[in-house]
Each structure stands twice: as structure tokens, then as C-alpha cells.
Amino acid sequence: MNPMIVRAHARLSTAPAYQTFLVVFLPVLALYLLTMQQANVESNFDAVASALPAWRMAQFGDLDLAQFEQLPFIFDVGGTVVSNRPPGISFLSTPLYWLFGSDTFAGAVPSLLPATATAALASAGAVGVLHLVLRRLAAPVVAIGAALIFAIGTSTWSISANELWPHGPAQLFLALAVLGMASERFFAGGLAYGASLLIRPVTAIIPAVTGLVHGWRTRAWQPILLVGLGSFIGVAVLLAYNQAVLDTWSPAPPSYGEAFVDRAGRQSIAGYVGDVLGFLFHPKYSVFVFSPFLLFTVPGLRTAWRTAPAWTKSSAVGGLAYILIHLRLNRFWGGLAFNYRYALELLIVLSPLLFLSWQAWYDGAGAVGRRLFWYSVAASTGIQVIAISIGFTNGYLV
């Protein structure tokens, strides 16, 4: 092996966590900023409705979006026109709008560049924190490699970092929550879970299940109480915001969430099974088609489960409960033309167990199996490159 590579490997193997975090975060951020969506007319409705409150707050100090009333997800509440996006995603890009935003319009709406840069920052941060989580399970160099594969081989790149979807910011706070669980800093983990549900309210399922499972597995009350308390702060902020802005105490306001609750009541068992299978294997929208390297994380699951730390198992159960309920509430394909997005939060909290599963398989795999894995990583990366390269025109913004 090249002596320079050997020396670099040795340095990384003994480097402190903040240094290896930067080794992951900085190049991933550079990649995400270079490839993020910049043309407003190619932005989806969710990203626009999420960015406008941040722009308005930075420019005028209020949430009045009357000039954008014709856009989707913008509606009248008691005489005030507002966005129906959750508060976490609506305000996350406010700092960048304060710094760089202006009243200059690009098409029908202000520039979305500060919002999109926020998505890239959050997504790169999520990958960096994921690496910190994986450092607790493997050598730093291996954790770096695994995080980088996640960064380029999943739709974290083509969805989370490409526009201000809720997924990138939610992934960041969920990764911080998993790190809190791994460090036994349960209240801090609960606060991070609470921040994630302010961005994507349905993720409240994850701390509810994770805290209970971890407390049961460790025969301790602290995880249940502290994770619950920290995440409940997020719930309280969400309810207060919904009352103040959307005129309802419901966590699922009529403007958005009630449609999902109604769908859960109408969906047949066959329809639900179809959504689960589609989520996994659909040729246009599934995780295993658009990130085929994930197939190689499955064979070692039984071995990984036997040896995994309690926090890894608790996080995995919380993530699985989340996605099974989510698929009852919403269509698996997420309104996309192709690719997947609803799996992104799941993948963050499930990644520690999937990593151990992959490691158990890879250690015993032959040369052919290992070669196929690396081919699948290359294929996953190529697929995400193609996904980023294909644009569309949003008729509302022309």
C-alpha cells in the first residue's frame, strides 16, 4: 500500500472525533453545495412553502404571505395568509435569509438559495453526526467510509440536500438524538427528537417508541422519563405554534395533517401491504432500487441483533415503528416522479444496526460478494447523480 495512504490511515485512526467529523462534513458539504438545486422554477411546492415564512420573517418580521396566496400550501387563517409548513422547517433558513436574503424576486417568489443552502448544510451535518454515531461501533476510518457511502449512495444527496424538504433538517436532529442515546445523554437526545418533530411532526413516533424500548431493555426509568421530557418540549412548542398561527391545538391541523389521519382510516389491508412492498421494492420509488447497496446490509441482521448495543436496537425499533405508521398515514412514493424520500428519517435511526449487519456479512464474505458490494455502491452513487441531473418545471413559479 502507498506509504502516504498508510500514514493518513494511521493519523485518522487516532484523530479526535471533531477532526474526523470535519473530514466527513467539509467535503460532503462542498459536494452538496455544488449540486444543490438553484433554479426557483425547478423547486417543489414543499420547499417553496417552507422557505417563504423564513424570508418574510427575515425581511419584515411577520408571517403574512398574502402576496403568495395563489401558491400551494399557502392559505388564509382568520384573515391572515400563512404557510401550513411546521415551524421547524419554516424558520430553519431564517438566519441565512437575514444574512443573504433580499426583496429581489427570481420569478414568482424570492430567491430560494438561502433555503436550499440551509438544506445542504443540515444534510451534510446529518452525515457528519452519523459518522460520530458509527465511531462508537467501529474504528474511525471505517466510520468515515460508511458515512461517506451514506452521503453519496442515498437520496440524502438528491433529496435532502437538493432543496428545503423537511428530510435533511429532520435527519440532522435525529442523528443528534441517536448520538445522545448512544452517549446515555437521554435528555439531550430527547431535545433533539423534539427538534426533529418540529420539522416533521410524525417523527414524534420515534422517541415515543425508542425511549420505552430502551428503558425496558436496560431495566431503567431514566431513558423513558428523560427522552419523553425532552421530546415533549418539542410537542408543546408545536402545539403552541399551531394555535398561534394555524388557529388549532391539533398536532395534525386541517390544512395538512388531517388528510393523513383520514387516509389511515380508509386504507385497506391490501393497500397497506402494497405500500410496504412498494416502499422496499417499487422500480421507481423504493430504497432498494435507488440505493441498492442497502441490500448488503440485510444478510447479517440476525448476527448484528445478537451483538448490538441496547441503544442500537432501541433506535432501530423506534425507526421501524415510525415507518410502519407513516406508511399507514401517507403514500409510499411521496409525490415524486422517481426516487424515495420517506425512508430518509428511518435510514438515519436504523443506520447503526444496518452498519453492524453489513459488517457481520462483509467480514465473512468472499471476494465475489465483496466485489458486488462495491459495485452496488458505485451503482447507488450513479443513480443519485442521475436523480440530481434531471430537472422539471414548476408551473406555479414560471
List the helices and strands and how they pair.
Blueprint: H1 3-14, H2 17-35, H3 45-60, E1 74-77, E2 80-83, H4 87-91, H5 94-100, E3 105-106, E4 109-110, H6 113-134, H7 140-153, H8 155-160, H9 167-182, H10 186-199, H11 205-218, H12 222-246, H13 257-266, H14 269-281, H15 287-290, H16 301-307, H17 310-329, H18 343-364, H19 367-389
Antiparallel strand pairs: 1-2, 3-4
Structural notes for this entry:
By secondary structure, the chain is mainly alpha-helical. It has one domain (18-397). It contains 19 helices and four strands. It has helices spanning 3-14, 17-35, 45-60, 87-91, 94-100, 113-134, 140-153, 155-160, 167-182, 186-199, 205-218, 222-246, 257-266, 269-281, 287-290, 301-307, 310-329, 343-364, 367-389, and strands at 74-77, 80-83, 105-106, 109-110. Strands 1-2 form a two-stranded antiparallel ribbon. Helix 10 (186-199) packs parallel to helix 12 (222-246). The N and C termini lie far apart (54 Å). The model has no long low-confidence stretch (mean pLDDT 93).
Read across the widest sheet, the strand sequence of neighbours is: 1-2
State the major sheet. Answer: 2 strands, antiparallel
Runs in which pLDDT lies below 50 for 5 or more consecutive residues are none
SSE series = HHHEEHHEEHHHHHHHHHHHHHH
Count all strands and give the number.
4
Between the first and last Cα atoms, what is the distance in angstroms? 54 Å
Q: Tally the helices: what do you get?
A: 19
Number of domains: 1
Mean pLDDT: 93
